[in-house]
């Protein structure tokens, strides 16, 4: 009998396992369907000896000092600022859209004030911004929307931006300067030895036992622990009693080339052409020196592991049905992107896990944990 069982060895499950084991001196069984730790952030050396991310690129960035302080107990860091180009009209242009994007695309020579005036003539006035399309056309106009956002979003989500919540494209800024960094967070670094090495350090505690390659079986596994933290899909826990929550998945194609470099930046997006959404070259992220290079192509799909909760009002309404039932449980916590049915970045998941542990440690009622996980 363990004090805790945690389903999922990604960020949410691993952070909570470490906190419970080290701060409460309680026993924790961590179970994961996959045969490795680290969840979607898992990395490994491929046959060529190049460190790659099995489930697509994971770029660490945050403004939360508490998250950095926590992870820094388990990893060193290497500086890295992510840059992305979009293949648009046969050119590789900075994304998010900035001053150079507009100047090169339209053959202009604008300064920041000129770009603001240029965009002002193209924006569409929308009184009530509801969808992802509304966000973009009200910011940069329809032509830039169609070139950079519409096709990419259709591929990524299998839906037109007009069918998706505004939160999807609201995450992507538009800049009137030449800042070509994808993120502007105060902390932008990568784990010096990779994510898997960091997870191994997080989970290296005598109170933690790992069982990998084991699918959660409630009849068999729930009696093995007094309390449960579930980081898988919340609808799966309840056997889809209200219906399945929709998720978008990804298929990855990995490739190694006999050249030192294949791309000028880590990631190139393809909003207009190709079936894949983007190609990532990992040595840009890791700083590894190697005569060959490895790439990953991403193909969005409706089949496969759940990656992205689909942000539509009817899906949130369905999730709230599951959340209501979850709030009635006295010994189960739901945490993480799948447990809270939210599109969360890595640092947000870690922050959520740390906040959940603080509430567990204060002996507050489990119903508060469910709300905190949102």
UniProtKB/TrEMBL annotation:
MF-aspect GO terms: UDP-galactopyranose mutase activity
Domain UDP-galactopyranose mutase C-terminal: 147-343
Cross-referenced InterPro entries: UDP-GALP_mutase (IPR004379), UDP-GalPyranose_mutase_C (IPR015899)
Source taxon at top rank: Bacteria
Keywords: FAD, Flavoprotein, Isomerase
Presence of keyword Flavoprotein: yes
Record-given protein name: UDP-galactopyranose mutase
Enzyme class, broadest EC rank: isomerase
Lineage of the organism: Bacteria, Pseudomonadati, Pseudomonadota, Alphaproteobacteria, Rhodobacterales
Family indicated by similarity: Belongs to the UDP-galactopyranose/dTDP-fucopyranose mutase family.
Cofactor(s) listed in the protein's UniProt record: FAD
Pfam families recorded: GLF, NAD_binding_8
EC number: 5.4.99.9
UniProt-listed NCBIfam families: UDP-GALP_mutase
């Amino acid at each position: 009998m363990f004090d805790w069982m945690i389903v999922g060895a990604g960020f949410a499950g691993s952070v909570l396992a470490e906190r419970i084991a080290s701060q409460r001196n309680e026993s924790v069984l961590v179970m994961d369907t996959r045969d490795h730790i680290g969840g979607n952030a898992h990395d490994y050396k491929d046959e060529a000896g190049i460190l790659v991310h099995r489930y697509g690129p994971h770029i660490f960035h945050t403004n939360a000092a508490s998250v950095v302080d926590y992870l820094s107990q388990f990893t060193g860091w290497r500086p890295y600022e992510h840059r992305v180009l979009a293949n648009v009209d046969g050119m590789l242009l900075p994304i998010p859209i900035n001053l150079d994007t507009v100047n090169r695309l339209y053959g202009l020579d604008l300064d920041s004030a000129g770009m603001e005036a240029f965009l002002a003539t193209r924006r569409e006035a929308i009184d009530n911004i509801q969808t992802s399309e509304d966000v973009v056309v009200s910011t940069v106009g329809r032509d830039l929307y169609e070139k950079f956002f519409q096709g990419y979003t259709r591929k990524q989500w299998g839906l037109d931006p007009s069918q998706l919540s505004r939160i999807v494209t609201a995450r992507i800024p538009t800049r009137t300067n030449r800042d070509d960094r994808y993120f502007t967070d105060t902390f932008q670094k990568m784990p010096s030895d990779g994510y898997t090495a960091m997870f191994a350090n997080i989970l290296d505690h005598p109170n933690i036992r790992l069982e990998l390659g084991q699918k959660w079986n409630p009849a068999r596994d729930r009696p093995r622990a007094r309390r449960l933290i579930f980081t898988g899909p919340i609808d799966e826990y309840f056997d889809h009693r209200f219906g399945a929550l929709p998720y978008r998945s990804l298929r990855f194609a990995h490739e190694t080339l006999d050249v030192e470099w294949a791309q000028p930046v880590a990631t190139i997006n393809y909003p207009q052409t190709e079936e894949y959404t983007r190609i990532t070259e990992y040595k840009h992220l890791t700083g590894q020196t190697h005569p060959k290079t490895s790439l990953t192509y991403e193909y969005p799909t409706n089949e496969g592991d759940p990656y992205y909760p689909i942000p539509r009002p009817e899906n949130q309404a369905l999730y709230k049905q599951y959340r209501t039932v979850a709030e009635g449980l006295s010994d189960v916590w739901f945490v993480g992107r799948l447990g809270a049915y939210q599109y969360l970045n890595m640092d947000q998941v870690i922050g959520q896990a740390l906040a959940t542990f603080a509430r567990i440690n204060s002996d507050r009622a489990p119903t508060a944990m469910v709300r905190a996980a949102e």
